[in-house]
């Protein structure tokens, strides 16, 4: 299982706010909850799942601003694909918390 950090930036919006686009992106993620888990953060969205499913969902997310009339979109993705053991968002947080409790 891989984890993706994704930020989708619609370029040329009428206002500085992009919350309406973020809300639409979250709706697409909800429609794909059988394939991926996700978590909205203040600056990006984290998604976990099988790599092929993630790429499919990323493409759907990238298309959201275009479907709302935006003519240019910049999408940044960072992929953590660990193959030696199962890695999840929750597991990564637990590992850090365990290290913090050792101090």
TrEMBL record:
InterPro entries: MTH1187/YkoF-like (IPR029756), Thiamine_BP (IPR002767), UPF0045_domain (IPR051614). GO terms for cellular component: cytosol. It comes from the Bacteria. Residues 4-97 form the Thiamine-binding protein domain. Belongs to the UPF0045 family. This is Thiamine-binding protein domain-containing protein. It comes from Fictibacillus phosphorivorans. The lineage of its organism: Bacteria, Bacillati, Bacillota, Bacilli, Bacillales.
């Amino acid at each position: 299982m891989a984890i993706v950090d994704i930020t989708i930036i619609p370029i040329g919006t009428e206002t500085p706010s992009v919350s309406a686009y973020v809300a639409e992106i979250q709706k697409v993620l909800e429609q794909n909850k059988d394939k991926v888990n996700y978590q909205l953060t203040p600056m990006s969205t984290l998604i976990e799942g099988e790599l092929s499913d993630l790429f499919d969902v990323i493409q759907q997310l990238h298309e959201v601003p275009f479907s709302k009339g935006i003519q240019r979109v910049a999408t940044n993705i960072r992929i953590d694909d660990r193959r030696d053991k199962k890695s999840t968002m929750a597991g990564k947080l637990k590992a850090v918390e365990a290290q913090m409790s050792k101090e």
